[in-house]
Amino acid sequence: MNYRVQPSAQVDDTAEIGAGSSVWDLAQVREGARLGEGCVVGRGAYVGTGVRMGDNCKLQNYALVYEPAELGDGVFIGPAVVLTNDHNPRSVDPEGKQKRGGDWEAVGVKIADGASIGARSVCIAPIEIGRWAMVAAGAVVTKDVPDFALVVGVPARQIGWVGHEGVRLVAREDRAGVWECPKSGRLYRETAEGTLTESE
One matching Pfam family, short form (predicted)? Predict the structure, then answer.
């Protein structure tokens, strides 16, 4: 076995765990879930049935990633984050009968490469969070988040851009539509459609 699972964790026999990954105390990885290489699943975290995670993802303590979530490479999920999976959650149907697995249609959250989801935030499925985007701690995300966007609040709204370093970008005064990372100096260009791309 080329990965580490703590004795108190529960990893289903049908789950796939990539080389170099770690599953810590009291975490649960359900049937058919697939974790890439170098992933970390923190204490008490939950990875639902069939969830897909890329390489080098981090799920911090008590994060809840419900199926059918899909995480790209290098995704960070902060402590106590919740990725939901139901449009209209109910315990019972209109007649009062308890709902079962086949009584609802699961919808998922998709998170692209490099994105970060801050502590105790909630992502309401179905949504997509773009590459290298950042969701602030405590936010409630109810709509798609563009690549490199920084979103905060309840409901989450965009307040700026972040680059690969995770630092808020600064507008270049000498070049319209160009943003710069104050840490790396890397440049990004804002399109007429309001999206951000790496500058060539």
Answer: Hexapep
Cβ atoms of 49 and 30 closer than 8 Å? yes
Delineate the domains of the chain, giving CATH numbers in brackets: 1-94+105-162 (2.160.10.10), 163-200 (no CATH)
Rounded to whole angstroms, the Cα distance separating 105 from 87 reads: 8
Cα torsion at 48, 51, 53, 58 (round to 10°)?
A: -20
pLDDT for 87: 84
Sign of the torsion angle spanned by Cα atoms 8, 13, 15, 19: positive
And the tokens for 177? 């539509």
- CA 39 – CA 58 distance, rounded (Å): 6
CA distance 189 to 96: 54
**132, two tokens:** 């290298």
Does this model's pTM top 0.90? My answer is yes
Q: How far is CA 43 from CA 9, 154, 196, in A?
A: 8, 27, 35
Average pLDDT for consecutive 10-residue bins of the chain (200 residues)? 94 97 98 98 98 98 97 98 92 88 87 98 97 98 98 97 96 90 95 87
Residues in the chain: 200
Q: Cα separation of 196 and 147, whole Å? A: 7
Q: What is the distance, to the nearest Å, from the Cα of residue 165 to the centroid of all Cα atoms in its chain?
A: 17
| Sheet with 140-141: strands ordered across | 10-11, 28-29, 46-47, 64-65, 82-83, 122-123, 140-141
